[in-house]
Amino acid sequence: MRDLLKSALAGDGGTDHVELRYHSKVFRSLTVQNGKLERSTTRRREGVGVRVLSSGTWGFAATDDLSVGGVRRAIEAARTSARATASLRSDRVTLAPVDLAVGDFAEPGVDEVLGRSLDARVALVLDAERRARAASSRIQSASSTYNEIVTHKAIVTSDGADVAFRFARPELYIMSVASQDGARTQVSESVGVTGGWDCLFRTPVEQLAEKSARTAVDLLTAKSLEGGRSTVILAPAVVGLLVHEAIGHTVEADFVTSGSVAKGKLGQQVASELVTLCDSGDSAFHTGAGGTLPVDDEGVIAGRTAIIENGILKSYLHDRQTAARFGVAPTGNARAWEYSDKPLIRMRNTYIEPGDRTLDDIIASTDDGYLLDGARNGQADATGEFTFGVVTARRIRKGTLGELVRGVTVTGNAFDVLRSVDAVSREFSWDLGSGHCGKGQPAKVDAGGPYIRCQALLGGVQA
Amino acid sequence: MHRDPRTHTAGLLELCRAGVHRARAAGADHAEVCAEWGHSVVASVQQNDLDGLADTEETTLGVRVIVDGRPGFATANRAGALDQAIGDAIAIAQATAPDPWAGFYQGDGIERVDSQVCDDLVAWDAPDLARRLVDRIRSLRAAHSVLTIDSAELQVSRSVRALVSSEGVAGAFATTRASGSVFGMAVEDGKVGSFAYDGDVVGQLDHVAPALDRAFARFVAQAVDALHARKGETFRGDIVLTPAAAASLLLGPLLGGLSAAQIRKGRSPYTDQLGQAIAAAGLSVYEEGLGLPGIRACPFDRDGVARSRRTLVDKGVLQGFLYDQYEATAAGATTTGSALGGASQAPYVGVAACSVDPGTIAAADLESAQKCVVVPRFAGSTDRVTGDFSGVVKGGYLVVDGERRPIHETTIAGNVYECLKAISGISAERETIYGQTAMPSLRIADVSITAG
User: Fold this and answer.
1) Taking CA atoms, which of A298, A365, A439, B330 is between 20 and 30 Å from B112?
2) How many Cβ atoms from other residues are within 10 Å of residue B185's Cβ?
3) What local confidence, expressed as pLDDT, does residue A138 receive?
4) Pick from A85, A224, A259: which is nearest to B185 by CB?
5) CA distance to partner chain B, nearest, from residue A9 (Å)
6) pTM assigned to the model
7) Beta carbons of A381 and B194 less than 8 Å apart
8) Are A164 and A154 within 8 A, CB to CB?
9) Hey, what domains does chain B have and what are their CATH numbers?
């Protein structure tokens, strides 16, 4: 595909910046419920997205015509759009210079995933669902879903990017619905990686199924929490959601330009000295993080960016346009979900680096609080205010874990929460690999970290 | 390229017929092909400045087959990939156990072609789209200097859907739509307010300006007021949900619970509740299968079944469930024409559009309680099995003795199914949300409210 794009570009005699991105996605999905294959889909989508920067203004066109002529027509459509609207733009767009990627890249696992038979995938979801349903007599129903996205991209630009890369992203969800005496609960466990099944099932299927079922059953008898401000220990999944939703979005440079709460705070202490927070195209500490990618969709190498280092805000996340505006190097965060989407500044794998405490030690030194685990439905605000649900909250009294509490929402201002961090564990895991981020278009991301202890507002039921 | 979607109708129908024929030849006992052509132009603003125009054209195919009683579905995005999609669908069918409920709706063999096309939207010039958006954003910021627009879009889309099956279904519907949205916040003296966003979808060019006037006015009120938000109060009491918040917090779970698929899977609270009171006596909910005034839905569903207007809840009493062909077969019922999905999706149960009857109380009077919280937007999580919800109020207000002030960091928690029964007021005014839901404001009693 690099050759197709280069041929299309070779015929372009203009002086504009032209970016061509071929993008093929094969998505497979199977869902089993109560022993029955409910849904099975194979979806193929491919095409070329074209951006032309002319007269300081972008034009974009997307085509599913994969001929040289088709791509050239899309280049002209994008150029026409840019020139027709240039007079409406106040600031001319410029791009930061950078060494652009050249060559072929492939993340591990692509061939292994493609080599799996459809029968093997069907057997996997049937087994996962059966295990959850069989885990307890109180499991009323269960379901499992296996999704897999195999991506192939090629990017060629008029200023030197000439790169192709492939990756596979399999994920598995298991949901258990428990019931007893009219009460019902449902709990979903999931895992998602960039890699093959060997990487995906480092957490065995039976363990995921058993945890989903056991938590659903345990929550049947859990009481609701009375809301209020509290000391909390956040598990890696919750830390991941916090750093992604509540910090990560506020440091995306497009959003900083709009006036996010992180604007003007570079060099300032915004978190506890115990906090070093990064976003990376690599998978730090453990391989296979769900947002891993070698190159972004502008052809920039997707390396590690330290956003907060020992509590000091060090960097925003950039594409080439915002990097030029801020006078810094691009950070490789330009990503598009489909060929028909324009690249936007998106996170990859976002995390807090591990500390030197153990989880046991942190719990033992907590007089009164909650251990929160299992993240769901995160949202954050321009102000840094965030809210998300946690599946389980376990009471801590005088250093000892106590009863389970259900249905908790955590709310707070992310920077206030990070300033309140007084303990960071050495245990680390990625835990949002099955998640997607939404910003006008989806993006596959991952997030995680250690266990951290901090202060937050828990939304509960008032008596 | 022909921008008028009607010019693509015959070609798409022919593509579907060819697909059905080739799927049968490849071994399918029954086959259905859904094809969609779409062309969209989007003008976008990012960070208060024009980001550019995006022009996208695509054809999408969805192939459903049944082989020896085994269903398969696959989709691809290029007409040239039809054989690949047929092969994928048959491979899935062959790897699947026989399903006694799998089957296609039995059509009458009559081809039905329909459209709701606005010629002005067909002809709408792309640079004019950008000009209108930029002018609107500039005047908005001139009038409210504290506003910063993170992103805004104005879009025109032209599309056709065609559906042909081996069981006598053949139809096509062409349409044009315009939509606009704005997302941003207010910033003043280093203080940042909460996000606000709003938007709308319309079917006629002359509806664009009034719809955006209303949406942008709601956006401005939310964004500017949020700048002055202060701490709320912790109590148990009334909340007032604006139409958008009521639709997302209550109507979504209600409609989900009426899906025959959720009932079959044991995930609905409404099993065996037909004829029972499931909501307050003032609440009446309708499936608007033919769409809302001014914005028609495709007259046939994803199975090819004619859509209609149906009463789902009448004065609080449950009147009916939602079935597609598959769920109707599974339940021994008749499809209600409630199959959703585009060409790239297998059918699933849902409503194309819906409405809730207005009440008799002026929206402003819903806030007349001694103390209540007004919820323009809810950000949180809802367990649709249990109905438990918990989340934060966005752009909210605390009203005490008629005095309204913006609040932040305030969460609400409760149960959506209990809230439906605890509706204590329905506004006389309704808003149409993104062209799909006609919804009044609702007042709900006895909700748990926690301030940070």
Assistant:
1) B330
2) 29
3) 96
4) A259
5) 19
6) 0.91
7) yes
8) yes
9) 5-225 (3.30.2290.10), 226-248+358-451 (no CATH), 253-356 (no CATH)
